[in-house]
Amino acid sequence: MGKEGVREIDLNTLRCTTLFESLTHAYVNDCVILPDKILFVVKKGDMSKAIGKGGSNINRVRSVFKNKKVYVVEDDDTIEGFIKNMYPKIDIQVTVKETNKGKIALIKVDRFKRGAVIGKDGEKIKANKILLKRKFNCDMKVL
User: Could you give the domains of the chain?
Assistant: First the structure.
């Protein structure tokens, strides 16, 4: 990262962000490109634009990025709110603790929903940890 609050992005990330914004009219605050997926963090309040009526916008985005899974998270100013936006359909409780290694968010979830939070082979939690680290310099652990 360059100056405080300014993140340098590569040309591929810029292309993906621009394409997403032109297809959805939602403003992208962050974009992470992984080998098998792309994560977009949209401006708070822009999630409905990103999804579109009946899922039209997100389906269009997914058809353009057909070789990758596309995940969209609505931004938030708090760690707790941001994590809850990562799991909008799952009832979770988030507690943030300060440790000697930095901040960690502890996620408490019903044991029957743990798999949905972690994802197959841990893919969902790994991706969400990247977003949380970039935005808040915070780690996350599921209890």
Answer: 11-74 (3.30.300.20), 79-142 (3.30.300.20)
